[in-house]
Amino acid sequence: MYQICYKTELLVGAGALRGLEKYQQQTILVVADPFLEKTGQLEEILAYLPASNQVTIFSEIQPDPPIEVVIAGIQACPEDGVDLILAIGGGSALDAAKAIYYFGKKQGRFKEVELVAIPTTSGTGSEVTDFSVITDAELGRKYPIVDRSLLPDVAILDAELVKSLPRSITADTGMDVLTHVLEAYVSPKASDFSDALVEKTVQLVFEYLPRAYRNGQDLEAREKMHVASTMAGMAFNSTSLGITHSLSHAAGAVFHIPHGRLNSILLPQVIAFNAGLDGVRLDREHVETAKRYQRLARLLGCSASNPGLGVKQFLQALKSLQRKLDLPLTFAKYGVDRALFDEKKETIAASAIQDPCTLTNPRQPNPDDLVTILENLY
Predict the structure, then answer these.
(1) CA-based nearest residue to 120, from 160, 178, 152
(2) Contact between residue 159 and residue 219 where contact means Cβ atoms under 8 Å apart
(3) DSSP structural state of residue 16
(4) Per-residue buried b or exposed e for 149-158, using 16+ beta carbons within 10 Å of the residue's own CB
(5) What is the pLDDT along the chain (378 residues), one digit of tens a residue?
(6) Would you tell me the crossing angle of helices 367-376 and 243-255 to the nearest 10 degrees?
(7) 8 Å CB contact between 313 and 304
(8) How many CB atoms lie within 10 A of CB 98?
(9) What does pTM read for this prediction?
(10) Three-state DSSP class for residue 84
(11) At what angle do helices 338-354 and 367-376 cross, to 10 degrees?
């Protein structure tokens, strides 16, 4: 038996922001990326809210939001509470808003609150997940919060909001989408529902991400990637993730590599590890996982006549995509210092072992396995 919850109402496509017009006479906390204030995009979005609402803007968002930002967000709320928390921005803004919502309710600061998410990147899927990741900056560790209450009530997906994304962010967030679905597909909690979402999303990413990267004004490609991001969130929300994310959470807090870019670096070695591929042969113990990657390779038009060949062809397709996106394939190519890497690799592996995402990896690693994965990627 398994349970799946898709509670979030989705407003999708051109004009989706008009969904904000229904909110009248509400006390609203807007949690937004500061970049949106500087560009004027936040003002354009909030113009859809009727004038009868009382709006407080909190934009002290930082990448990988630290605990202090969450506390400051709660303190920014009016003393008599709020009716609506409106999260606008990328993954960090959405994660911060969800954590403010979660801990604010725990503290009794507010009770009946609607949570609305408007993503302005196509990557995290946070608008349809019950995850929020916050950081303890002092300890250099990321902590996932997982709670059903974190699922937003409404998500507004308007591709007009992502047309101006820089190419590098388009690539990074797109690879985050792909990582989400690849980990969902081989999770022990995978189901027919998540598989359907994954298989469609993989096809969308390989077709439309290069187009969105080459031409940000390609609205069809932008909308397909925006939808793919949300579908990926729906998939991994019921399956959880794997050691790509465990390692990314741990290494990201140390090396400060953008999350999607770090996932991209880690993915090929994690796929090889999960499938039991030592570079030449396939370990038969992990053949069922290899067959899943084989199926995805076939979806991409590869022959994939056996599991081993399927894994190798899928890895070739993945590396071809990375090259199209001008992504670094190693830590060295990104610019991570070798001495720092050697100093931190065992600490990163130890932290990743404790990460909740490791529990749903198809192959359970030990710390030495994770150190080897990291070393193979320097």
Answers:
(1) 160
(2) yes
(3) G
(4) ebbbebbbbb
(5) 777 778 899 999 988 999 999 999 999 999 999 999 889 999 999 999 999 999 999 999 988 788 899 989 999 988 888 999 999 999 889 999 999 999 998 888 887 899 999 999 999 899 999 888 777 777 667 677 888 889 999 999 999 999 989 999 999 999 999 999 999 999 999 999 999 999 999 999 999 999 999 999 999 999 999 999 999 999 999 999 999 999 998 999 899 999 999 999 999 999 999 999 876 677 778 999 999 999 999 999 999 999 999 999 999 999 999 999 999 999 999 999 999 999 999 999 999 999 989 999 999 999 999 999 999 999
(6) 70
(7) yes
(8) 31
(9) 0.91
(10) strand
(11) 140
**CA-to-CA distance for 377 and 227, rounded, in angstroms?**
31
Q: How far apart are CA 251 and CA 140, in angstroms?
A: 9
Q: Which tokens in the block code for residue 194?
A: 């998540």
| 154: amino acid identity, one letter | V
The candidate with the shortest Cα–Cα distance to 41, out of 89, 105, 91, 97, is 89
Report the alpha-carbon distance of residue 147 to residue 105 in Å, rounded. 13
Inter-residue contact 239 to 194 (CB < 8 Å): yes
Residue 43: CB atoms within 10 Å = 11
H or E, element range at 132:
strand 131-136
Rounded CA separation 31/115 (Å): 11
